[in-house]
Amino acid sequence: MRIAVAGGTGTVGGHVVAALAEAGHEPVVLSRAGGVDLVTGRGLAAALDGVEAVVDAANVTTLSRKKAEAFFTAETTHLLEAGARAGVRHHVLLSIVGIDRVPFGYYQGKVVQENLVEAGNVPWTVLRATQFHEFAAQTVRTLPPGPVAVVPRARVQPIAAREVAEALAELAVGGPRGRVPDLAGPREEYLPEMVRALLRHRGDRRAVLALPVPGSAGRAMREGGQLPVGSGPRGSQTYASWLAEQPK
């Protein structure tokens, strides 16, 4: 089965490509390096020739609602329109648990994206997953230099990106299922503690200061707005187990 992966060189997308290839399918990576620009639609028609399903794991790094909405509107619209013309039979979208409960600008962009997929002409599946184990490292990269790491207070239930990718690959080869149950990690974690463990793993002795993010978004983070609601599939690898595998 020929399956296109938007964001196929990213944290999750790279694992999706590997999982599809291991299962005997033909993954097609949609990337600028391969001549495809998701924001403008350039190269999509040729790339989707013969493709039966699309997995959208594309991402943009921003906290701005305006930028997130612009990116996800453009890339999703182009993917859906080009997919419909190419005869794509299944569009699988990776989304995020809690985007309708935590009013971050980026999350609001993901809400717009979900709405576009649901209203589109290509049969679809949407999988919301919790933050990845890599979330702690992403948080560290945003910290200013200094002796103290200031980290937002947040309850999360992180999952290995590889396990999310395997779920997406499995969904892609099946039929459209609409919104499927949320996928989360095996246990709840506290983001400041995740960052502290990561720093210690790297030999970084900085103190970690947990501070509340102001406003409704911060309150939702502290009160579990990013946690899964109800029953659903759970990953098996804990954050501690994942961290032990990472280079120091």
Task: Give an account of the 3D structure.
With 248 residues, this protein is α/β, with parallel strands linked by helices. The protein has a single domain (2-244), classed as Rossmann fold (3-Layer(aba) Sandwich), CATH 3.40.50. The chain is built from nine helices and ten strands. It has helices at residues 13-22, 44-47, 65-86, 105-119, 135-141, 161-172, 191-201, 215-222, 239-244, and strands at residues 2-6, 26-30, 53-56, 90-96, 124-129, 148-152, 155-156, 178-179, 189-190, 207-211. The strands form three sheets. It has a six-stranded parallel beta sheet, with helices on both faces. A two-stranded parallel ribbon has the order 6-10. Strands 7-9 form a two-stranded antiparallel sheet. The longest helix is centred in the first third of the chain and has 22 residues, at 65-86.
Please outline what is shown here.
With 248 residues, the chain is α/β, with parallel strands linked by helices. It has helices spanning 13-22, 44-47, 65-86, 105-119, 135-141, 161-172, 191-201, 215-222, 239-244, and strands at 2-6, 26-30, 53-56, 90-96, 124-129, 148-152, 155-156, 178-179, 189-190, 207-211.
Any chance you could write out the topology, listing elements then pairs?
Blueprint: E1 2-6, H1 13-22, E2 26-30, H2 44-47, E3 53-56, H3 65-86, E4 90-96, H4 105-119, E5 124-129, H5 135-141, E6 148-152, E7 155-156, H6 161-172, E8 178-179, E9 189-190, H7 191-201, E10 207-211, H8 215-222, H9 239-244
Helix pairs in contact: 1-6, 3-4, 5-7
